[in-house]
Amino acid sequence: MRVLVALGGNAMTSADGRARPEDQIAAAGVAMAAVADLLQREVEVVVTHGNGPQVGNLLVKNEIAAAVVPPVPLDWCGAQTQATLGFVLMDALEAELARRSVDRRTATVVTRTLVASDDAGFTRPTKPIGRYLPADEAALLVEHGETWEDRGEKGWRRVVASPEPLRIVDAPAVQALVGAGFVVIANGGGGIPVVADEDGTLRGVEAVIDKDLGAALLARSVDADVLVIGTDVPHAVLHYGTPEARDVGVVTAAEMRAYAAEGHFASGSMGPKVDAACRFVEAGGARAVITDLAHLSDAVTGTSGTVVVPN
Ligand code: ADP
Ligand code: MG
């Protein structure tokens, strides 16, 4: 069995959101212990991960250091976080595997994901990223071509395109490494967004791809049987945060789509996870599970979490 495990950006920081290197290393250890449990059961695993907090930190460095060191574009930030988190995850996973006497090698693939240059997101950016700034500081960045939105009391926040992932450009490299027995970490942050010029040349673009939608596409591209979306809640919940709250257990993609249409899942958080789970099974995947790290290894056999199955 082959499983694609998608870890939330928050699975890579401490519970209170701190992202010092030691916080990220500790969080990676917890997440990789769950992945190692899976590997111990002879399951093939490909890991992908979010990078929101890490990219947020790089953007702050860009802003503060702009007068001294040239700021780098958002696609570079994506590439940097794929490499750094890949390295942290490989160290953590290999330590957990050694502890279990499981003999497997790990590899990280810096992964590009193709998006359309005419994606609606490029004309109407919607994805908020980075920190809040006061109006005058945001105005300066708007002059440099960035889009910032007034978010009321908290201040202004940058918004960027979140284009639809069309193809995982480096999926063949992931496939080859999986075939050779490696546990592969790939497509972090949903992939580095690239567009194709008329002659086919790829070029990075200032955008962020939704990690969960990227994960669904990667899962199909590497022929995964199961997509597990690991986050900080054990289930997707109907009437979330109300007295009528009810966990979603095993559902068909059509039932889940109907719940989504009723507005049960917040657009910036649970919404894309539900969409990704549905897309994966609608495209031929056997099962998609949304759950927390504690239930990750159980999720693969279908005993816990929110399990989306074909109609
Ligand atoms: P990650 O960082 O792991 O990708 P997010 O923070 O984006 O995860 O999404 C998980 C969060 O979604 C949960 O912590 C929860 O607060 C929120 N959420 C919103 N709507 C729901 C819902 N209907 N059911 C469960 N969680 C929900
Ligand atoms: Mg979160």
Structure in words:
The chain has 311 residues and is α/β, with parallel strands linked by helices. It has a domain of 170 residues: Carbamate kinase. Helix content is 38%, strand content 23%. It has ten helices and 17 strands. The chain has an eight-stranded mixed sheet, sandwiched between helices. The longest helix is centred in the first third of the chain and has 26 residues. The structure holds adenosine-5'-diphosphate and magnesium ion (MG). The site of adenosine-5'-diphosphate has 15 residues, from loops.
- Name of the CATH first level of the domain at 2-113 and 167-224: Alpha Beta
**Strand runs, count:** 17
Q: Which percent range fits the helix content? A: 25-40%
Radius of gyration, in Å, reads 19 Å
Per the CATH scheme, the topology name of the domain at 2-113 and 167-224 is Carbamate kinase
Strand arrangement across the biggest beta sheet = 3-9-2-1-12-16-17-15
Q: Any idea what the CATH architecture of the domain at 2-113 and 167-224 is?
A: 3-Layer(aba) Sandwich
Mean pLDDT metric: 95
- Which molecules other than protein and nucleic acid are bound? adenosine-5'-diphosphate, magnesium ion
What kind of sheet is the major sheet?
8 strands, mixed
- SSE run: EHEHHEEHEHEEEHEEEHEEEEHHEHE
Percent strand: 15-25%
Shape: globular
Within CATH, the superfamily of the domain at 2-113 and 167-224 carries the name Acetylglutamate kinase-like
Count of helical stretches: 10
Low-confidence sequence ranges: none
> What distance lies between the first and last C-alpha atoms, to the nearest angstrom?
21 Å
Query: Structural class, please?
Result: alpha/beta
InterPro entries: AceGlu_kinase-like_sf, Asp/Glu/Uridylate_kinase, Carb_kinase
Keywords: Kinase, Transferase
GO molecular function: carbamate kinase activity
Protein name: Carbamate kinase
